[in-house]
Design brief:
It comes from Dicentrarchus labrax. This is Nephrocystin-4. Residues 811-958, 965-1059, 1070-1153, 1159-1253 form the NPHP4 Ig-like domain. Residues 534-769 form the NPHP4 C2-like domain. The chain has 1255 residues and is mainly beta. Helix content is 11%, strand content 40%. It has 15 helices and 67 strands. The strands form 13 sheets. Strands 23, 24, 25, 26, 27, 28, 29, 30, 31, 32 and 34 form an eleven-stranded mixed beta sheet that branches. The longest helix has 19 residues, at 246-264. It starts with a helix and ends with a strand. 34% of the residues are buried.
Length: 1255
């Protein structure tokens, strides 16, 4: 049976290296650990000193090598001594044949490996007597600059004595004649993948038990380490019970600490220096016996009182324990975590979850300290009070679906954190060695917990976990804008060893999972709708300019709801070869949205990119409402868009915004016309709509461009009304207190909702134009000759001759390439000599390569319909050769297949004046990133001289973006994202070979992009890992999806934007205000800043108006969060430079909103269709003894109104609250929460009114 966590932990005790050495390595920039492999072959000992032993003892003597790391500069052994298997001596030679592995960042000349030879002699009691027979030293790094590893085969001389002599520099080394050890040291870079499983400076062999590694059939798991699959898990309903009670435990702890402080640091006479508890933290991490697999998470625990009424102050964080008579309970108090914890584990019995309970104490600072008068008067210090372990896979049947109860330990015992742990005499006597027990789910309900514990356990400290579950979220797909989220799968479904789990489900558990705090702006899939008659009349009366052809006639109107016939030949033969494409942004219809006012948005602007033109950021547009026409709530009229001048005034001229793009022979490159027509026929224009004031994204929409195809007409136009969509992640709601622990899980699965923010009215048009024919080929040739003539004037005579000879054997080739598409060509290579030649193909550009695979060559020949001869095994590939080689007979000509393909793209994005701006002005080059310098392919003969040169000039052509994604993520941390691929073929087709060749590439080499092969018929995902950036940076890149084996052309190209924001976690309760502080730091210049929130009715920012932010200053912002909907949500706050319209900082608010505790529940019936509502009354009693003023709030103000929104009553008096329910036109029911808040918006009472609308 494999060792458990405790056995591995006991064997993995390490001695740390000197702190001075660590500091020196950091100063020398040796921060990255490097892996090494040390092979110990044999030791030759012709003159090993003999030991007086019996003949029997000589026969039983075995020898062992012991290896330890040593710091020569500080004379310090560190790490852990490794011992080899005992071996016998044969013919003065000892064969060890051991391989050691380790990794270290102490790449300094002072770091050595000390190897000691030890003889082992059996004793009568069965033990072994170890005697040192000599030692040697291996230098790991040279003394040269950079401390390079001393790699290679080494023969080390053996010295007399013990390695302890290294601690005495005055002792002279004496070499044992003829004794030497053969070893080999070399780098082992593959250890990088498992360095998180093994600490630095630990020598291990390949058969060592390292939990987290897959066992190797060869016995050496570290030669090519493979990691076990990591699965995401969630810990829910985590509570800690300290005995005899939380109050008594902390009271005793504070009493001891205060007494100790008073004895050790007495203050001035008559002063009382009180230490108080400031915070209670829990460190949770996964440990494999050697080290933590990742940095432990630190969460804040809150005292949870059983039977609390859920008032605003019941969960407040106070430095001292306050006991209120109204909240007193006979049951013990506990420490609880209101949110869930996410961990990643693999199925291994030695993997353990480590819990460490830590208290943060606040102590007053005495007058003897050197702190200035401006410093705080209290200092904080940390102390671990309890810790515990849990190995979930040691006995998996013990916790399936049950509550987990762990015994927390204290006292002077070794622990993974290596810290001192608080202990009392009572807790030390009642420590239980059993790490796990499962008393049952009844124990979760607090009123039954005391009855189910045994007498002995009533004096122990426990940690309770209601359930451990796996997060199994679906991913948004490309074929629908919103996808649901599956139910939570219990752990036993994925950990059982029977065959009832499909292999695809197991494989999917190891994939990169979508992070729960990463909302995604899903691909926009919209369709044009027919505007109402009133909306059309309103738009017609606004006076928008008409789209007319060259003769002044109004363009023909196309219906966007009907299909458009597309004839490419008709488009190419159109005498009007010029096209003036027009986009008219006419109006925007507001749709009421929760959290914002009815007049939102007020100002907007648009961003989009058409074809290969530079990205467009429009000017600010004002939404104008008509006062002459009466608005209807069921059918709101569109708000006409009007441009805003630089002075802030609304332009009173022509309404709307018109953007034009001229595409003619002067713009298009040769052969590009068909690309442009294909773009119009197949592409949709993605448009983002932004709030001009807050620079927050309102939503996105897409316009089909096929209605801009003229098909022989002089001009066409189409009016589109499209929905502006955004996506939101919402989690299920949870209760405020732990009284409902046994009834539901606290884990909130996130559901994707598609929200319609409004409707955009836009008109598209295309006006045909006559254009002059340009001889672009002659112009390009003339410009090229001028470029060649000018530098040749400056060359010497010899260089000029060489250049002319080079030009004589050079063949020019022009390629029109787009991102991700492979361009195939064949170069005719001729042997000009009368003798055979072996020609080597040289090309330094990795994007231009020779096709040496016969199958790939045949694929591209068939794809491009090239009729030349296909020859198998034509090329010879040799390791270390500069390129492939080909044999040519005298005067023979052959075709060399070449392929150019680029996946890279230069797309640096940044915010400027609230706009997305590209650093390059040329749209094609900005989005393609192709090299403008020619690429030379040189064919060299056996003497190294060039036989022929193929010079390839690459001209970029645009690529079609099929989908656009916009994601939001916390700053400075990796974004891991999975995007579901759509089905590429009809499921009824039996041939699914194309499915097995799906591959992906990313335009940014710093982003990890991959897809994994799954079972045929199962969905397939694309996995992204994007490095983080500081807020408010936006990273844009492209993902190319290929469905053919040789990746000739991408089937889809996605454009992704990642917004990095500063994350803020807020835990609050619906209906009451929660305050959160933010810090805004000034930059280099003075700014006028104003803060905006995505939901102004739920988030208020103080200061509310514009304020001055000096350079390098720190401005504290106060967020007042008052949500009305329970569950997990994501809101946004932007700090905007109002003068330059530049985003200063952006915050991502991760809200965990709980449902309040209800005081009373009511039910009322309201008739449907009567046109009249219903009035009711409920009573409220002031629980205080003094006179107070209260506020009335509701989560459905559209359905419920109060007779008075505020009232004031005396202490103990009763007030009657008048309720007025709005009428409804359809039957149904809804629950309305009524909040009675104080003046600070803290909830005093919460009533639930269920309204039934019936006939």
């Amino acid at each position: 049976m494999a060792d458990g966590w405790r056995e591995v932990f006991e064997r993995s005790r390490l001695v740390p290296p000197p702190s001075q050495t660590i500091r020196l390595a950091v100063e020398s920039h040796f921060t990255q650990s490097q892996g090494f492999q040390l092979s110990l072959s044999r030791l030759t000992t012709p003159h090993l000193p003999q030991v007086t032993e019996t003949s029997d003892g000589d026969q039983n003597v075995t020898y062992q090598l012991r290896v330890t790391l040593f710091d020569r500069k500080h004379q310090h052994f560190f790490g852990k001594t490794w011992k080899s298997r005992p071996q016998r001596m044969k013919n003065t030679k000892i064969s060890f044949n051991e391989v050691l592995y380790f990794h270290t960042s102490l790449q300094l000349p002072s770091t050595l490996v000390v190897l000691e030879l030890v003889s082992l002699t059996p004793r009568p009691d069965g033990a072994q007597h170890a005697l040192g027979r000599g030692f040697t030293v291996l230098e790991l790094f040279t003394n040269r600059t950079g401390s390079q590893p001393a790699e290679g085969d080494r023969r080390l001389n053996l010295h007399h004595g013990s390695p302890r002599s290294l601690l005495h520099p005055l002792l002279k080394d004496t070499t044992i004649d003829g004794a030497c050890l053969d070893c080999t040291l070399k780098k082992h870079p593959v250890l990088v993948s498992m360095m998180h499983l093994l600490p630095e400076n630990v020598l291990v062999s390949g058969d060592e038990n390292v939990p987290g590694l897959v066992a190797s059939p060869t016995g050496d798991a570290l030669l090519r380490p493979q990691l076990l699959k990591m699965l995401p898990f969630t810990l829910n309903r985590l509570t800690i019970s300290l005995q005899p009670s939380l109050e008594k435990f902390e009271s005793q702890l504070l009493q001891l600490i205060n007494a100790d402080c008073h004895n050790t640091q007495p203050g001035p006479e008559g002063t009382l220096r009180t230490v108080v508890i400031q915070e209670r933290r829990l460190h949770v991490g996964v440990h494999n016996g050697w080290c933590f697999l990742d940095k432990p998470q630190v969460v804040v625990l809150e005292p949870i009182a059983s039977g609390a009424r859920g008032r605003a102050d019941s969960a407040s964080k106070q430095s001292t324990l306050v006991k209120e008579s109204s909240l007193t309970s006979s049951l013990p108090q506990t420490l609880g975590l209101r949110s869930s914890l996410e961990l990643r584990l693999s199925n291994h019995p030695a993997l353990a979850i480590i819990f460490q309970l830590e208290f943060v104490f606040s102590a007053p600072i005495g007058r003897e300290t050197m702190l200035s008068a401006t410093s705080t008067s209290r200092a904080a210090f940390l102390q671990c009070v309890r810790w515990g372990i849990w190995c979930p896979f040691q006995e998996p049947a013990a916790w399936k679906g049950e509550e987990i109860q762990l015994v927390l330990q204290g006292g002077a015992k070794p622990n993974p954190h290596g810290v001192m742990v608080y202990s009392t005499e009572m807790s030390a006597k009642t420590q239980s060695p059993a790490p796990l027990s499962a008393p049952g789910t009844a124990q979760v309900t607090q009123q039954h917990r005391g009855a189910s514990l045994s007498k002995e356990k009533n004096f122990s400290d426990y940690l309770f976990i209601y359930q451990l579950i796996i997060s199994c979220m679906c991913h948004p797909t490309l074929v629908q804008a919103c996808s649901g989220v599956s139910n939570i799968a219990h752990l036993e479904m994925d950990l059982q060893r029977q065959g009832d789990v499909s292999p695809s489900a197991q494989d999917e558990g190891d994939q990169l999972q979508e992070l729960p705090f990463t909302p995604v702006h899903a691909p926009v899939i919209t369709s044009s709708s027919v505007s109402s008659r009133s909306s059309l009349a309103h738009l017609y009366s606004a006076g928008f300019p008409d789209i007319v052809d060259s003769s002044g006639q109004v363009a023909e109107v196309l219906d966007p709801t009907e299909p458009v016939p597309f004839d490419p030949q008709r488009e190419e033969t159109d005498p009007l070869q010029g096209n003036l494409l027009v986009l008219q942004f006419l109006a925007f219809t507001r749709i009421p949205t929760a959290g914002v006012g009815p007049d939102w948005p007020d100002n907007v602007y648009f961003t989009f990119q058409f074809y290969r033109f530079p990205p467009v950021t429009s000017q600010q547009l004002k939404l104008l409402t008509s006062d002459k026409v009466q608005q209807k709530a069921s059918d709101p009229l569109p708000c006409v868009l009007a441009s805003i001048n630089n002075d802030g005034a609304v332009n009173s001229g022509s309404p709307g915004l018109q953007v034009q793009f001229r595409v003619d022979e002067g713009f298009l490159r040769p052969g590009e016309k068909r690309w442009f027509l294909r773009y119009l026929a197949l592409h949709t224009l993605h448009i983002d709509i932004w709030d001009s004031d807050s620079l927050l994204l309102i939503g996105s929409t897409a316009i089909e461009l096929k209605y801009m195809l003229r098909q022989g007409k002089s001009a066409v136009q189409a009016l589109h009304e499209v929905e502006v969509l955004t996506t939101d992640y919402v989690g299920e709601d949870t209760l405020l207190t732990s009284a409902d622990l046994g009834h539901r899980s606290a884990f909130s699965p996130m559901t994707v909702h598609t929200i319609v923010r409004g409707r955009l009215h836009i008109r598209t048009g295309n006006i045909g134009k006559y254009c002059e024919t340009l001889d672009r080929t002659k112009e390009a040739r003339l410009a090229k000759e001028l470029r060649q003539i000018k530098p040749s004037e400056e060359l010497s005579k010899a260089e000029g001759i060489a250049n002319m000879l080079s030009q004589a054997i050079t063949t020019q080739h022009l390629l029109y390439a787009s991102l991700g598409s492979a361009e195939y060509m064949e170069f005719v290579l001729k042997n000009p000599f009368n003798v055979p030649q072996t020609v080597t193909v040289h090309c330094d550009d990795p994007e231009l390569s020779v096709i040496t695979n016969t199958e790939e060559w045949g694929y591209f020949k068939a794809l491009t319909k090239t009729p030349t001869l296909l020859e198998e095994n034509m090329f010879h590939l040799e390791e270390g050769a500069p390129g492939p080689r080909v044999y040519l007979r005298p005067k023979e000509s052959i075709h060399i297949p070449l392929k150019y393909q680029s996946f890279l793209c230069d797309h640096t994005m940044y915010w400027k004046h609230g706009k997305i701006t590209n650093e390059k002005s040329d749209g094609a080059r900005a989005l393609s990133g192709f090299k403008q310098t020619p690429i030379d392919v040189t064919f060299r003969a056996e003497d190294g001289k060039p036989v022929a040169i193929c010079q390839v000039n690459v001209e970029p052509t645009p690529h079609v973006v099929d989908q656009t994604f916009r994601l939001y993520h916390p700053e400075l941390c990796f974004l891991k994202k999975a995007i579901r691929l759509p089905p590429w073929h009809d499921p009824a087709v039996a041939d699914s070979d194309a499915r097995t060749h799906i591959s992906v590439r990313c335009s940014d080499p710093n982003i990890i992009c991959q897809t994994r092969m799954l079972v045929p018929g199962e969905p397939q995902d694309v996995y992204l890992k994007v490095p983080g950036s500081p807020s408010p940076h936006i990273k844009m890149f492209f993902v190319m999806v290929f469905t053919d084996k040789w990746m000739a052309a991408p089937s889809q190209i996605w454009q992704l934007y990642v917004h990095f924001l500063e994350r803020v976690d807020v835990s609050c309760v619906t209906g009451q205000r929660n305050c959160q502080s933010l810090v805004l730091r000034g930059k280099q210049a003075v700014r006028k800043v104003k803060c905006f929130s995505s939901h102004p009715q739920e988030i208020e920012v103080d200061p509310e108006g514009v304020f001055l932010l000096p350079p390098a200053a720190v401005q504290e912002l106060q967020l007042k969060v008052q949500p009305w909907r329970a569950g997990s949500r994501f809101l946004y706050v932007n700090a905007v430079d109002v003068e330059h319209r530049r985003l200063v900082t952006a915050w991502l608010l991760c809200l965990n909103v709980h449902r309040p505790v209800l005081s009373k529940a009511f039910e009322v019936c309201v008739p449907v269709g009567s046109g009249r509502g219903s009035s009711r009354k409920i009573t409220f009693t002031n629980p205080y003894t003094s006179r107070r003023k209260f506020l009335l709030r509701s989560d459905h103000p559209d359905l419920l109104q109060f007779k008075e929104d505020k009232f004031q009553i005396g202490g103990g008096e009763t007030y009657t609250i008048g309720l007025r329910f709005a009428p409804s036109q359809s039957p149904g029911s809804v629950e309305i929460l009524v909040y009675v808040n104080n003046l600070e918006e803290k909830t005093e009472e919460t009533f639930c009114v269920k309204v039934n609308y019936s006939n």
